[in-house]
Amino acid sequence: MTDPDGAGPLVRMRAATPADADAIAELSGQLGYPVAAAAVRQRLERLLAAADQAVFVAAEATRVVGWIHGADQLLVESEQRCEILGLVVDQRLRRAGVGRGLVAEIERWAGARGLAVISVRSAITRAESHPFYERLGYERVKSQHVYRKRLRAR
Ligand SMILES: CC(C)(COP(=O)(O)OP(=O)(O)OC[C@H]1O[C@@H](n2cnc3c(N)ncnc32)[C@H](O)[C@@H]1OP(=O)(O)O)[C@@H](O)C(=O)NCCC(=O)NCCS
Questions:
Q1: What are the tens digits of pLDDT across the range 23-40?
Q2: What is the C-alpha to C-alpha distance for residues 154 and 140, in angstroms, rounded to an integer?
Q3: Quick check: is 4 in a domain?
């Protein structure tokens, strides 16, 4: 993202690295998923080594102010597609185009992989994300319940 008149912060999108783990963990807390930086680093190392996964960050100088995770999903019943699996922008920098820039990065990545569809599941409670995705051209196609079962104790 560029800042043509030089008035605001300059935020650039780039591929994530394991060194971003601390910032990504902190932002994940804002998303409602508190997580230890060491766990994020381990997961990033696996994700960044996988060709069908993409993690980008938005950086204002050296400060990471947002991240997005997208994946190439091969499904039995549907057309292969890209799914956005996580996205958050620092509360202090919302409504400044950072989220739009991160989604554009994933859309470029998905397009380069030949994927024709991109989807995202957004919780009903994430009220700000609904107008956001609609503004970016995403169409609400369904609502669903999410079920979960723990197979072993933590
Ligand atoms: C949703 C989220 C990522 C949006 O990021 P952002 O950087 O604030 O969004 P942008 O500034 O790039 O906005 C892009 C467009 O969406 C619109 N938009 C963003 N938030 C909006 C809101 N709360 N209400 C109405 N429109 C909104 C913007 O006005 C903008 O439209 P424009 O460019 O035509 O003016 C951010 O609010 C966030 O991190 N929320 C918490 C986590 C979350 O909900 N993640 C999504 C999980 S699926």
A1: 999 999 998 889 999 999
A2: 35
A3: no
Residue 141 lies in a domain: no
CATH of the domain at 36: 3.40.630.30
29 within a domain of the structure (yes/no): yes
**Number of structural domains the chain divides into:** 1
CA distances from 122 to 31, 51, 69 (A): 12, 24, 14
Range of the structural domain that residue 60 is part of? 12-135
Q: Calculate how far, in angstroms, residue 129's C-alpha sits from the geometric centre of ligand 1.
A: 6
Q: Which of 1, 91, 128 to mutate to test ligand 1, by most ligand atoms within 8 A of the CB atom?
A: 128
Q: Please list every protein residue whose CB sits less than 6 Å from any atom of ligand 1.
A: 31, 87-89, 94-100, 120, 122, 126, 128-129, 131-132, 135
pLDDT tens profile 79-89: 999 999 999 99
C-alpha of residue 6 to centroid of ligand 1, in Å? 22
Give the span between the Cα atoms of 58 and 65, in whole angstroms. 6
Q: Are 28 and 55 in contact (CB under 8 A)?
A: no
**Residue 153 within any structural domain of the chain:** no
Distance 94 CA to ligand 1 centre (A): 7
